[in-house]
Amino acid sequence: KKRVSVVEVKGEITDSKEIIEQLYEQVDDKRVKGIVLRIDSLGGAVGPSQEIYTAVRDLKKVKPIVASFG
């Protein structure tokens, strides 16, 4: 069965490691057809935010990723 995965970013962005790992896991999962990056954050540190952006930019070439803001 194909499915759409949701990766959530909640609260202040202070670290990118967990979010990027989740994104890569979902891209590698053959059952996942696309990813929704659900963001409920007022912002955070520039470095981790840039790392997440770069990962999304690169991974969306492999699998569709859309962002949803709350």
Number of helices: 2
**Dominant shape:** globular
Low-confidence runs: none
The helix content, as a percent range, equals: 25-40%
What structural class do you assign from the helix and strand content? alpha/beta
Most strands sheet: 3 strands, parallel
As laid out across the biggest beta sheet, the strand order is: 1-2-3
Structure description:
- The chain has helices at residues 17-28, 46-59; strands at residues 3-10, 32-40, 65-69.
- It has 70 residues and is an alpha/beta fold.
- A three-stranded parallel beta sheet has the order 1-2-3, with helices on one face.
Notable features of this structure?
70 residues; alpha/beta; 3-stranded parallel β-sheet; 2 helices; 3 strands; globular
